[in-house]
Amino acid sequence: MTQQEREKEFLTIALHMLKNEKQPHNFCLDTPQENEKDKQNANALINNITDIPHAFVLGCVMDAMIKAEYAWMAPYKIFNALLAEKIIKNCSINELEKVPLSKYVSLFEDKSLKLRIRYIKKAAQRFYDAVQLIKCKYHFDASKIWSDKPSSCDVVERFREFNGIGQKISTMAVNILVRSFKVKLADKEAIDISVDRHVMRVMKRLGFVKCNSNEGILKKDIIGKARQMYSQYPGIFDRPCFDTGRCYCSDKTPRCKNCSLNKICKKVGV
Ligand code: SF4
């Protein structure tokens, strides 16, 4: 297979995955240590961008240096703790914005909540700041971040205004909105691939980027390669890389025989 043929086939696989995206999105069901009811409820909460759009945004804000599933569980646990203590009457931003930062810090420090969040004080500050930004800039309604059919560039920039959200999470957030929630945007050109360790490993092994670059260069190379392969929606390659990295292409024992990318993979370094 030539390089061009491999890239073309990779795009076909990515388009096929996009077409067959399942609803609702599985945000936090792969957390064996959580009880089943909590997982189901937390997952339903994050998926409910119609009634509680800020839960999804707060999950994105929590997604730093931890397994994504723990980040998606966090809004549910924080909301529940505040409701149980009767500090809020419901989970709206109108209620959440009245909670002082010190209360968020104490909840994040509460070991009984099992948040599994790192750098607790910073995480509480990010949560508090996000609530305040949604209140002030989006008039208590987080869906205004994406509801006016903006350009993908605008939505990525809006996510980046949240304390703690950088390139990876902003593009991931917009990618999820488009892929899983079918939010309509004017274009998808600014939805870059969100480079994490799985995406990096798979793109290297596929032979689409050079293996020996340092991490910073590698990230730029991967983003550039995805743009070159499908400029109208570079983030389309995120899901096939991430899923493959997590399920088949492990660091030490890649399961190439079962991998859907086997026939296009150069298996560099394997
Ligand atoms: S074929 Fe093997 S090396 Fe290539 S992506 Fe799949 S699991 Fe990884």
Q: Would you kindly provide a written description of the structure presented here, covering whatever features stand out?
A:
The protein is mainly α. The chain folds into two domains: 3-21 and 191-264, Endonuclease Iii, domain 2, CATH 1.10.1670.10; 36-145, no CATH class. Helix content is 54%, strand content 0%. It has twelve helices and no strands. It has helices at residues 3-19, 36-47, 53-62, 68-84, 93-96, 101-109, 120-138, 152-160, 167-179, 197-206, 215-229, 238-247. Helix 3 packs across helix 4 (68-84) and helix 10 (197-206) crosses helix 12. The longest helix is centred in the middle third of the chain and has 19 residues, at 120-138. It is globular, with a radius of gyration of 19 Å. Bound molecules: iron/sulfur cluster (SF4).
Q: Which ligands does the model contain, each kind named once?
A: iron/sulfur cluster
Q: What is the domain tally?
A: 2
Q: Based on DSSP secondary structure assignment, what is the total number of beta strands? A: 0
Give the helices and strands as they follow along the chain: HHHHHHHHHHHH
From the alpha carbons, calculate the radius of gyration and give it in angstroms. Answer: 19 Å
Class per helix and strand makeup: mainly alpha
